[in-house]
TrEMBL record:
Listed name of the protein: Phosphoribosyl transferase
Alphabetized CDD domains for the sequence: PRTases_typeI (cd06223)
UniProt GO molecular function: transferase activity
Highest taxon in the source lineage: Bacteria
Any Pfam family the entry gives: Pribosyltran
SUPFAM superfamilies reported for this sequence: alpha/beta-Hydrolases, PRTase-like
Residue stretches making up the Phosphoribosyltransferase domain: 14-179
Keyword Transferase: yes
Length: 434
């Protein structure tokens, strides 16, 4: 069994755990790689999400091999088998533990701030990681949940070795694993995309989950999966509209991306906090994405965005709201192409690391105020954006985020994009006139 990425693994794991839906459940993700998986499980179970902060104690000369783990509340798990096999001294172990304890404290402050952990007392704690190797971090997480008086602990992972149960040593009340292959070397071998997860993605997952629960509690709010029919295709989407929203922003994703894009979700969360709704939807079906040419078919993508705009104008809860477009990569060209259509009437457009130049001659017909955001360390795209800006006749601005590359993965850069988009949309979201 192989997983495309952590999001797919999380969705499949959520399906396996469906029997827990409706119970008093808290989902605990192990940072950093386990949190995107846990976020999908929490959404499937309609449960709150929190992190369970643990740190692997890696062998000094082979840090990917865990000789133990530490966690919040002073939890400590040591793998004596690994210690004996590697000959790590007590002094070396103490030095590694001291260093990881500092990282643990920094992560707690970054992910939660001053907020306390979500209470698991008397509840079922579902501990989730992207996989289990030695089992040390999973055991530490289960012990943290036990120390916090969880009534029941379920450890759930997409993949683990065949002796998974033996490695956990009874620290969980129930073990759930989608696959336990015979030939297991490392968790990453079972993922097509096992890229490192950054702190920004972790915080985005936590904010999105917290926002989902706030919206669920609000009588006038919406947060649900939707299907948008566009050009005969049925496209999956997520519509989130806070109570008393002043407008809604439709996201046009870039090449190879979808409504599950962690970067666009991060930006969407910032817009929700500002009272703006969002529609994150797939511009292409899975079959269409297989043809790379569709990703650069700007007319096709723009047509899908226009159909989604019409859908928003007729949908209960968004009817009458001002609509904005947020585009990333090739999605930025689609957003501007669509904005030039006489039927579109978007209140504002924002491009993140986009290719507005691909909208070509349509740029001069755009009337919506347009913000172009580009990374300062992305010189080729910056030049293309400057050329595109010169062809715009509407109110426009080019913002350069210092030190940011094309994907805005550097610390603080995606937060800056979110601030710029939020301010642009809130400044220009007047009631729609259609």
């Amino acid at each position: 069994m192989h997983f495309t990425n952590r999001l797919e693994a999380g969705r499949r794991l959520g399906e396996r755990l469906e029997y827990l839906r409706g119970q008093d459940v808290v989902v605990l993700g192990l940072p950093r790689g386990g949190v995107p998986v846990a976020a999908e499980v929490a959404e499937a179970l309609d449960a709150p999400l929190d992190v369970c902060l643990v740190r692997k104690l890696g062998v000094p000369y082979q840090p990917e091999l865990g000789m133990g783990a530490i966690g919040e509340d002073g939890v400590r798990v040591i793998n004596q088998e690994v210690l004996r096999g590697t000959g790590v001294s007590t002094e070396d172990l103490a030095r590694v533990e001291e260093r990881e304890r500092r990282v643990l404290e920094q992560r707690a402050a970054r992910y939660r701030g001053a907020a306390p952990p979500v209470s698991v007392a008397g509840r079922t704690a579902v501990v989730v990681d992207d996989g289990v190797a030695t089992g040390s971090t999973a055991r530490a997480a289960c012990r943290i949940a036990r120390a916090r008086d969880a009534a029941r602990i379920v450890l759930a992972v997409p993949v683990a070795p065949r002796d998974f149960a033996r490695r956990l040593g009874g620290d969980a009340d129930e073990l759930v694993c989608l696959d336990t292959p015979w030939h297991f070397a490392a968790v990453g071998q079972f993922y097509a995309d096992f890229a490192q997860v950054g702190d920004e993605e972790v915080t985005a997952c936590l904010r999105r989950a917290a926002s989902r629960h706030r919206h669920t509690a609000g009588a006038g709010s919406t947060d649900r999966e939707v299907t948008v029919t566009a050009g005969g295709a049925r496209l999956g989407g997520r519509l989130t509209v806070p109570e008393d929203a002043t407008g809604v922003v439709a996201f046009a994703h870039g090449s190879g991306s979808s409504r599950h894009s962690p970067r666009n979700r991060f930006v969407a969360e910032g817009l929700h906090r500002a009272g703006l709704g969002t529609l994150l939807f797939d511009l292409l079906t899975d079959a269409e994405e297989a043809d790379r040419g569709n990703v650069f078919d700007i007319a096709l993508l723009a047509g899908r965005l226009l159909d989604a705009t019409r859908w928003l104008r007729e949908e209960p809860g968004t009817e009458g709201l001002a609509i904005g477009f947020f585009g990333a990569s090739t999605g930025a060209a689609a957003a501007l192409w669509a904005a030039a259509d006489p039927d579109a009437h978007p209140a504002a457009v924002v491009s993140r690391g986009g290719r507005p130049d691909l909208a070509g001659p349509r740029l001069a017909a755009v009337t919506a105020p347009t913000l172009l955001v580009v990374g300062g360390a992305d010189p080729q795209v910056l030049a293309l954006n400057r050329d595109a800006q010169a062809r715009l006749r509407c109110e426009n601005r080019l913002e350069v985020v210092p030190g940011a590359t094309h994907l805005f993965e550097e610390p603080g850069t995606l937060e800056r994009v979110t601030e710029l988009a939020r301010d642009w949309f809130t400044d220009h979201m007047a009631p729609a006139h259609v």
